[in-house]
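>> Question from a student workshop board

For tomorrow's exercise we were told to take the sequence and the ligand below, predict the bound structure, and bring the output to class. My setup keeps failing. Could a helper post the expected result so I can at least see what it should look like? The ligand is adenosine monophosphate.
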Amino acid sequence: MNKQTVLSGIRPTGYLHLGNYFGAVQNFLRMQDDYNCFFFIADIHSLTTHPTPENLQSGVRQVLAEYLACGIDPEKATIFIQSDVPEVSELYAFLNMNAYLGELERTTSFKDKARQQPDNVNAGLLTYPVLMAADIIIHKANFVPVGKDQEQNLEMARKFAKRFNRMYNKEVFPIPQPYTFGGGDMIKVPGLDGSGKMGKSEGNAINLFEDPKSIRKKVMRAVTDSGPTEMNQQKPEAIQNLFTLMKIVSTADTVTHFDGLYNNCEIRYGDLKKHLAEDIIAYTSPIRERIIEILEDDAYLAKVAKMGAEKARESASRTLNEVKDVIGFRKLF
Ligand code: AMP
Ligand code: TRP
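>> Workshop helper replied:
Here is what the output should look like for this input. Compare the format with yours to find the bug.
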């Protein structure tokens, strides 16, 4: 039987953090054996923030090394860089003709970004979900493992795929589904600053590449309160966030232990944080060591990128030819 196709991407705007790892990469790792997987580095998307050429290059190299260090296997999955596959930009141009200003303006990610960078509300930000849809459907992906924050963008991709199929009355694209391993909810890894998600632009991220000293410092600085005053009290957001992180990186026994202390009003946040920091370090240290090793091997990085580009272009150009035919571009020579 043909394997179903999975695709996901990450923007190379910094180091991979725990949110990326547990929201996205961990799902990729569990899928690479059973699915036809495409994992890519969304360098065109990252241009919305106007990186310098140096930052763009080092960001792409870093994320590539980090994907590999996490255990994504380039022999099993296709790992590629978005800009190495020009077909995607062509499909993006076609899809833009059927994407409407109103729906693009209403996306929360656009509204968030417009708020975060009010001096740079460019058209790329507005049509970000269109490019993301092109990324996904050019490989006819069935599943897209992403974190909760990408839910709406993925919904837009589904909409654009359906619209195209309907417009040309042909099932060119499968409708991509969100995917979480084990069928659970999409994950949202919280930040340590009391509210919201962990993210690069939020400035609250713990990176996989972070050294132990810096991890301890960040965790110890996490926002808490003066402690519970009543037994079995509901946890405020900042405290719940620490527990959510602990559930992700620590054993169930550890979580139960600190939960019990909280419920008895005996918790000392300092102890919880120390434990949490060490458990994060245990998770990230081996990955960090591999990142360092892989970053030293330029020839290997180049080989992986080249192999991925070839495989991704083959798949993308197959779809693009079909799309052009369906749209009605006819060759006159
Ligand atoms: P980004 O770093 O925004 O390019 O995100 C890359 C991938 O990581 C996407 O699939 C996101 O959904 C996922 N991701 C980023 N931050 C988080 C988070 N705090 N929790 C869960 N998933 C996340
Ligand atoms: N928008 C995603 C993010 O910021 C990155 C991304 C771009 C992506 N294209 C994609 C994710 C296609 C999944 C599929 O996290």
